[in-house]
Design goal:
403 residues, Cytochrome Bc1 Complex, Chain D, domain 2, mainly alpha, 2 strands, binds heme C, 15 helices, two-stranded antiparallel ribbon, 1% strand
Length: 403
């Protein structure tokens, strides 16, 4: 009887001890290690969220975005190639409750920082298929007053939250990476070592860049494949025939009218590698060079050739003078889009050596400007003669293949 009673006591004490041990080993200890790691590896003053971003975070949780999107880049080659550097513990240490998610029906969002401009996000939330054909993401019309360019404060908060994801890590820069590497103190641990390559912090394949290497495209792209790629990936914005009249009419600047322009091979390879930074035009870096060459061939087909008008030398002279006085500070002396004002501009001026608008388009742009960019309206500031002279003149910078 007594032994039996003793065994109850032994079992309960052992039970309690086991409980304490497992809480310590599985809960308290790892939390300690993680806390210390976060403290050592975080940048000295990591950027927090603004009020608007915090509200956006609550909306993200409320709308269930985390059911389809993760916020954790894993330590795998495939993840890093697509999204960027693997997530470190400190990046989400203030997230409570966390929004890591467990399923990827859509892509990971933890490296969204500066990957898409706000107009893209608004068009996408209002109607994902207006910018991404075949998207299965639901529409979030309740966040808008009836149109994608009429976002409510909630939509603005949500988008500013999306644009904050990955920001602290990216802004910490190479110094931040060096500090994390030192804080980790794990030279032999292969997994965390993968995370410390400042070059891949935001390697998101869709992120538009101002500069970047431009691989030469193979000359003869497969036109049939190109047409197919175009209809699936580009037509939602640029329209089925390239007139810039796809479903995404709320974007500023509007998608380019591909039929009214000629693009040099060098310009096309630049645009497909880097997108157009500051606009909704994404980069297509994750495509093979053959696919890019194929879509480039399809683009050439969309552009309508027009007979070149003969221009009297006096007009060209007037055009050159007007250009030097009014346009060169942005578009550069030789039209390369590299004038002295470029660092101040959110969107780089058109590189007229690689893009030739038709005469009609050139005049239209000078009359109307390009909404959403610094390209202003010139009617009223230039006389009609000056305007048409400079519209002629800028077409002469083009250095693509003749057609
Ligand atoms: C039913 C699943 C689903 C839900 C819920 C969902 N998404 Fe998506 N999301 C997707 C899919 C699929 C894609 C990829 C296709 C596309 O870009 O539309 C995507 C793409 C995105 C992208 C583009 C990412 C990139 O880099 O290309 C963003 C940003 C985004 N979603 C934000 C949100 C937000 C914010 C919410 C909540 C308001 C949300 N999603 C809810 C499925 C979903
Ligand atoms: C989300 C909408 C969107 C999608 C999808 C899109 N574009 Fe664009 N694209 C734009 C916008 C907006 C511009 C205008 C940028 C500007 O005015 O500089 C643009 C500009 C361009 C230009 C002109 C660049 C220049 O130097 O002026 C080319 C060429 C182009 N896109 C090709 C493509 C191709 C090819 C695809 C598909 C693989 C594609 N676009 C998909 C929105 C899009
Ligand atoms: C403040 C800087 C600035 C000045 C000054 C400026 N531009 Fe522009 N220009 C831009 C920007 C920015 C774009 C848009 C690039 C884009 O959409 O990607 C542009 C685009 C253009 C385009 C391309 C249109 C198209 O359809 O692709 C032409 C042509 C052009 N500008 C001509 C001129 C002429 C001519 C002048 C002088 C009268 C001038 N620009 C002055 C910044 C400037």
């Amino acid at each position: 009887m007594r032994a039996l009673r003793m065994s109850y006591i032994v079992a309960s004490v052992a039970g309690v001890l086991f409980f304490v041990l497992s809480v310590t080993l599985l809960g308290v200890w790892p939390a300690r290690v993680l806390q210390e790691q976060s403290r050592n590896m975080a940048p000295e003053n990591p950027l927090g969220l603004t009020r608007s971003e915090m509200r956006g975070r609550a909306i993200y949780a409320r709308e269930g975005c985390a059911y389809c999107h993760t916020q954790q880049v894993r330590f795998t080659e495939a993840d890093m190639k697509r999204f960027g550097a693997p997530t470190l513990a400190w990046e989400t240490r203030l997230d409570y409750p966390h929004l890591w998610g467990t399923r990827r029906i859509g892509p990971d969002l933890s490296r969204q920082y500066q990957t898409h401009p706000a107009d893209w996000h608004f068009a996408h939330l209002y109607s994902p298929r207006s910018v991404v054909a075949d998207s299965v993401m639901p529409t979030y019309r309740a966040l808008f007053n009836g149109a994608p360019d009429q976002p409510t404060q909630e939509a603005r908060d949500l988008v500013s939250y999306l644009d904050s994801l990955g920001r602290a890590r990216e802004l910490a820069g190479p110094e931040g990476e060096a500090r994390a590497r030192k804080g980790c103190n794990c030279p032999d641990d292969e997994m965390p070592q993968m995370a410390f390559h400042s070059a891949v912090i935001n390697a998101n394949a869709g992120k538009a860049r101002r500069e970047g290497p431009t691989p030469a495209l193979p000359g003869n792209g497969d036109i049939v494949r190109g047409r197919e790629l175009y209809q699936h990936n580009c037509a939602s914005c640029h329209g089925p025939r390239g007139h810039g009249d796809g479903a995404a009419g709320s974007l500023r600047p509007l998608p380019a009218d591909l039929s009214e322009h000629q693009y040099s091979p060098a310009r096309l390879s630049f645009v497909l590698e880097n997108g157009v930074a500051g606009t909704a035009m994404p980069a297509w870096r994750d495509w093979s060079l053959d696919d890019r060459a194929a879509v480039a061939a399809a683009l050439r087909e969309l552009s309508v050739g027009q007979p070149e008008p003969g221009i009297p030398p006096a007009t060209l002279e007037l055009g050159a003078r007007v250009y030097r006085d009014n346009c060169a500070q942005c578009h550069g002396m030789n039209g390369g889009g590299d004038g002295s004002a470029v660092p101040e501009l959110r969107i780089v001026p058109a590189n007229l050596q690689g893009v030739r608008p038709t005469l009609a388009q050139s005049i239209r742009v000078l009359r109307n400007g390009i909404e959403g960019t610094q390209m202003a309206v010139w009617t009223g500031r230039l006389s009609e003669a000056e305007l048409s002279a400079v519209a002629y003149y800028v077409r002469g910078f083009y250095q693509g293949e003749p057609r």
